[in-house]
Amino acid sequence: MTISLPATKYSLRVRLASSALGGCLAAVLFVGTPLRADADPVLAKVNGSEIHQSDVNLAAEELGPSLAQMDPAAKQENVLSFLIDMKIIAKAAEEKKIENSEEFKKRLAFARDRLLMDRLLASQAKAAITDDAMKTVYADASKQITSEQEVHARHILVQTEDEAKKIEDELKKGADFVELAKKESKDPGASDGGDLGFFTKEQMVPEFSKVAFALEPGKISDPIKTQFGWHIIKVEEKRARKAPDFDEVKPQVEQFVTRKAQAEYVTKLREAAKVERMDKPAHPANASGDKANSAKPADGKTPAKK
């Protein structure tokens, strides 16, 4: 089970900045964990330039996806070979004075800014991820979840109203709902007696939810029509929606706390900065201090079952 966390309002720019903790972030985090000399042996020398185990570890983080299927020994060998080639090629590039080109200088400046941003955002995230902060987010989200009602229902799905009425008559005569569902229903869950499990209102199409949530446990509906055909619904049970255990959703909570802290920090820095856009006129809202670029929060709804 997943947990729906409350949406935060922050600009698209903030989202882009806070989601930038990709490849460079792995490098930043590693750089922040220095190794002792005896734990960081020299693995190779290229024209006198040393390659340490820490260099291999750093490169492995950067190249992660392409190395995912390799065993540790093969990964170590491939990354070391890559670094040796990189040193050789970088030396050749220096001899050709490539670092003096304007393109190289721009790319180097971009990489520096990116690394600085990642380092700072990583430190903000680390400070924000406390037990209290995560438990607070979990508690707030759990309250929203447990305030919802869930219904456990079965249904029989057929294509025509006449078929649905025929099944309705059989049920009124005492036929077993589960057996009729197995025999007559066109739904993929027919083999389970039409069992839909527990669901919330948003997880079903409106016509279905309206009837299912109005029925009392043990009751059977009249035939109803949706985009999928004609249904007869039997409600088995109703309950308040259960929140998952904290440990089950801890990674999601940690990610939410991280991104929220980073987003708020970037927003604060942006508000204090002087930003001049030369490519377009200033938005009227900017003059009054409104955040014109605020993104709307996601609605967080679960897609309807089909």
Give a verbal description of the structure.
The chain is of the alpha+beta class and 306 residues long. It has helices spanning 12-18, 23-31, 53-62, 64-67, 72-95, 102-128, 131-146, 161-172, 177-184, 206-214, 246-272, 284-287, and strands spanning 42-46, 49-52, 149-158, 195-199, 224-226, 229-240. Helix 2 runs antiparallel to helix 3, helix 2 packs across helix 6 (102-128) and helix 7 crosses helix 11.
Quick summary of this structure?
The chain is an alpha+beta fold and 306 residues long. The chain has 12 helices and 6 strands.
The number of helical elements comes to 12
Task: Return residue spans where pLDDT drops below 50 for at least 5 consecutive residues.
Answer: 1-35, 285-304
State the total count of DSSP E strands: 6
Percent in helix: 40-55%
Listing every helix as H and every strand as E from the N terminus to the C terminus, the arrangement reads HHEEHHHHHEHHEHEEHH
Main β-sheet, in a few words?
4 strands, antiparallel
**Looking at the structure, what is the overall shape?**
elongated
Mean pLDDT: 82
Terminal-residue CA separation: 19 Å
Task: Give me the Rg, rounded.
Answer: 29 Å
Reading side by side through the largest sheet, how are the strands ordered? 4-3-6-5
Beta fraction: 5-15%
Structural class: alpha+beta
Topology:
Layout: H1 12-18, H2 23-31, E1 42-46, E2 49-52, H3 53-62, H4 64-67, H5 72-95, H6 102-128, H7 131-146, E3 149-158, H8 161-172, H9 177-184, E4 195-199, H10 206-214, E5 224-226, E6 229-240, H11 246-272, H12 284-287
Antiparallel strand pairs: 1-2, 3-4, 3-6, 5-6
